[in-house]
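Hey Z.,

So I finally got round to the coproporphyrinogen III thing we talked about over coffee. Here's the setup:
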Amino acid sequence: MSIFLKCVNGDPVHRPPIWFMRQAGRYLSEYRSTRKRAGSFLDLCYNSELATEVTLQPIDRFGFDAAILFADILLILDALGVKVQFIEGHGPLLDPVKNKKDIQRISDLGQIHEKLFPVYETVKKLKKHLPKDVPLIGFAGAPWTLATYLINGKGEQGSLTAKKFLIENNEEFEEIINLLTDATIEYLIMQIRSGADVIKIFDSWAGALNADMVLRYSLKPIKKIVSEIKKKHPNIPFIVFPRSVNTIYSNFSNEECFDVLAVDQFLDRKWIAENIQPKKIIQGNLDPLFLTQKEDTLIQELKKVTEDFKTYPYVFNLGHGITPDAKVENVELVVNFIKTIKF
Ligand code: CP3
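And the result:
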């Protein structure tokens, strides 16, 4: 079995496995060139040939221990009939959903697979092309994070628009969360049937919610998604990433059905090592900013992370996605550093 699957299944490994969020992205010249050939970012996501190509690029170049399907968390909203665009330099732009009529319009789950078919094709192609010891991670956005884009029409620091909607239009908000939960279950089951080995759920904006809201609108729907899917696919490990939820990571670590918790760079590592690692395998934490820095600065930080987490097995990763200004030689350095560790 691959070192990554061994680790996420809780079996002993001799070093941390390593992969990076957004490992296929703009910091790589080969990615930029394939993206140009595809046309737009969405065209790239829906072109299974080219999406396969970019997924494999960081595996070929650096020898990461896992591949992540090239797609985007917002594709499911596009598949539900919301107009989604990616504007160069500005990120995603969507037609916001504001009332019962809008919700009604996007409630037909029957239609999603036709639009998402190319994503399933990418998964199948990747399973043919990936080396046998490199498993494939499928993924989806968590209902809350999807809801923030759906309600606001774009990303927003603090997710205030969606948070106000949650309070002021709670009935509609709950309808949206339930709809997105059901759609995500269907979507992920198809990714698994197509060949995904592990699933990751990204709740990138979970940290914008107050503590009681996190439990109700981040943790609860994610738990429903994971437990429903595990009824059918009990052996698929799940990585859950409730970004920036601070000490509420502790509540996530009490959930049996989550296999790995991905931790951001803001959480105190000593606190993680004491409170989370004894209960859950963790992944992440290196601040992506260090990938833009001098070699010495990066090595110092790598030593700290690996020292602080060494008591229990963990998956090496970043606290958030790689930024376009990351240095390629730094990524190479990190992979080589981690591959020489011996537990
Ligand atoms: O390599 C991988 O990690 C797999 C592919 C992947 C992408 N997005 C490709 C992408 C994954 C897993 C995602 C997840 C995603 N998408 C999240 C959750 C993780 C996170 O970053 O918090 C979110 C919130 C999105 C939504 C999204 N997609 C935004 C806000 C943006 C614009 C911001 C930006 O970085 O430009 C995207 C675009 C996007 N998704 C790019 C990539 C490689 C850049 C697009 C480009 O080529 O111009």
